[in-house]
Amino acid sequence: MCHSGGNFGTDVFLTLLSESGDTITEYEPETAYTLKVNILAEGAAAYGFQAVALDGANAQAGAYGMVPSGTQVVTVGGVDYAEHSERDSDGSWDIPWTSPAIGAGSVTFYAAGNAVNNADATSGDDPDTTSLQVAEALGAGLADIDHSLKLELAPNPTADILQVSWTSELAKPNALQILSVTGQLMVERDLGNTANNLELSVQNYPTGVYFVRANTSQGIQTKRFSKL
User: Fold this and answer.
1) Which residues contact 72 (CB under 8 A, 6 or more apart)?
2) pTM of the full predicted structure?
3) Of 14, 40, 103, 157, which is most buried, counting CB atoms within 10 Å of its CB?
């Protein structure tokens, strides 16, 4: 950052809120939220910020809505950044954000905040940066999207081998993925001419909960399994 030299003890905080005002740690796809940006600093005269939401490939994740007065959205390299357009005396902003479509995985918000002395120069200011990662709620509402696909996992729980099978006349899956509860892609298989089953090794996965996601021409079905 070009602003420096200040000593306000600046701390930047990010919180993602639901429409009811609850703090969330995982998002539902294509749902409206509020990204709250707060800057705490002792003795600063004014504040500014910039925030961006990126997926695992560092591409734009979701979309900002109509931002409040004193803020704006600028696009750089195909990525949208929410930022102040005027100095703020409180150091707090509520930015509307709509989450991406199903399958985007975890979203990371990155923010930079600046506490300034209002001297119209870059010296005497005190910046800080932070980030917030929010997982996609893979288990919520996905299992029933594609009723024509019957996805089965066995054994469940499993310590080493997971047998995945499916029966479908209308929506044969074209790809299969295993994802962690944080949205990390563990493995992806192009099914091609695969009959109706697949054997996957999960022996080296850390103990925990995972999701098998089958992608079809008619939608997505997801099932949960536990790794012992």
Assistant:
1) 82, 83, 84, 85
2) 0.62
3) 14
